[in-house]
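Suppose you are handed a protein chain with no further information: no name, no annotation, nothing but its sequence. What can you learn? This example shows the usual starting point.
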Amino acid sequence: MPTTLPFKRVFITGGAGFIGSHLVDELCENNAEVIAYDNLNSGRIENIKAWLKNPEFSFIQEDLLKSEKTLSSSLSRCETIFHLAANPEVRIGSQNPKIHYEQNVTATFNLLEAIRKVDDVETLIFTSSSTVYGEPEEIPTPEDYAPLKPISIYGAAKLASEALIISYANTYGFNAVIYRLANIVGSRTQHGVILDFLNKLMKNPMKLEILGDGNQTKSYLDIKDCIDAMLLGGSKHRRKVEIYNVGSEDQVNVKEIADIVCREMNLESVKYVFTGGVDGGRGWKGDVKVMLLNIERLKKIGWKPTLSSCKAVRKAARSLWHQKKNIF
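A reasonable first move is to predict its three-dimensional structure. Written in structure tokens, the prediction is:
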């Protein structure tokens, strides 16, 4: 991460969410003026409570789908926008695709329209997803891989948002940095396989249902590494539009994640029950079975992950389990 952050007045959509709140922490600790914008559907006010009395921080509880006037006025004098607001549940798209269309595509369009009208924004930084690649034939997958064929509604919505952002950046004169994220894990997360396993094992410590065949193999990245990548790429971009993959350099499969979670909970002899999944062992429709990103582009500007996939999963499992024990 840069030793001195170049961000002065920053606007963060989804600022009370998992990634957004960690970004708030880092920026506020480095004396940036931060506006967090969140409807609190999945974000939590507790995630940002440490900064609520900070004069350089402000929180706006609004929805990107409903508050055009508030959004435009909030963007005034903001040089940098981090657009993180989205529905992160990939599998919900197969049951209700409208959710991803509205909360990803429409929300992004509304934000872009506000940017166009205020004309103060220099850079928009967007968290996209590895799911835009679908099931690529090239592993690790580089940013210039083509054609992009997402197999989930979520991936399609992220790709559509990327296209809108690129076209608006070129048409209306601001810069864009797009991050295609691997699976980001850590404290405060409200979804994902680690939390799913913890919740199931708290209900029944003798048996664990695992969606799919357990061989789904993907890259997992610690939240701190993710924030460092986002800030570094956002401060060093040189072109009108930059696209970066953000992930670890290795993989871990779902069964191995189950083993890690069980060890962190000090559980032995847990019986694994695999659902078998759909379409050849996937956990759900649209679940990509194998994912590993080529991260050479970010490494060339000075970033690399500090934790492997297994270590990131272990750290997240330990943090989330500790949090749950304190609650219950």
